[in-house]
Amino acid sequence: MFSQALFYDFIDQEAEAEKTMAEAKQAHLRNASRGAPSIYMTAADFLLKCKATQLTERALAQELLTATDKVEPYLLLSRLKQQQGNLENALELLKKTLDANLDNPEVWAAFGHFHYGNKQFKDAQAAYETLLSLPLEPRNIALVYYRLGNIYFSKGKENDQVMNMAKTMFLRACVASPTANGWLGVGKACYHLQEFVDAEDALSVRFLDLSRT
User: What is the pTM of this model?
Assistant: First the structure.
């Protein structure tokens, strides 16, 4: 409903925009749990996933006018800039947010994901390892473990110590959120370490995960 209100605003249908906005806010207040993201952040996240960049910008602009949280809106804005292909601006937003929130695991995770997505694996590894040294975890810690596992795996084919680190990261990813890709990572690492029974077990679990989908 809020996305519809933004659309009306976008096409200059002010009366419909105001009416739909008021209805959306009332519905959000009725249904949102305490501490839930604002209606603007909820809409911006949804619209970004739909690649509706102009509407995402409008939702974020509203959020930034009133937000007391200065982390999540800027992380979402950085993702928007990445989607638009403005990587320099996206990185600058992340750096500014990181400078003001050095102990925030979500910011370090976003920093790592930015570099990982742009194949800057050395910088991604540094960000992920810093994140793992913090006392708190980001919401999607499994993705951090999995991607760090992939980085270690690519470096560990001639180094058993690094390959063991890859195996550990893949296992942690599977403990946090079991996936077929996570178990495949475990299996591949075990195979390179010549732990063939463990590799077979991990790949069997992966097959079971795939069969359930």
Answer: 0.80
How far is residue 128's CA from residue 124's CA, in Å, rounded to a whole number? 6
d(Cα 198, Cα 34) in Å, to the nearest integer? 44
Query: 155: which 2 tokens?
Result: 């470096």
Phi, psi for 55 (deg, rounded to 5): -70, -35
Q: In whole angstroms, what is the distance from residue 40 CA to residue 143 CA? A: 26
Listed residue (44, 41, 42) closest to 66, CA to CA: 41
Alpha carbon distance 166, 182 (integer Å): 11
Q: Which helix (H) or strand (E) holds 2?
A: helix 2-10
Rounded-to-integer distance, Cα 15 and Cα 61, Å = 20
Q: Look up residue 159 and give its two tokens.
A: 């180094």
CA pair distance 156, 167, nearest whole angstrom: 10
What is the residue-level pLDDT of the chain in tens, covering all 213 positions? 445 544 444 444 555 544 554 454 554 444 545 556 788 888 889 889 988 888 899 889 888 887 677 789 999 999 999 999 999 999 999 999 999 899 999 999 999 999 999 999 999 999 999 999 999 999 999 999 999 999 999 999 889 999 999 999 999 999 999 999 999 999 999 999 999 999 999 988 876 655 554
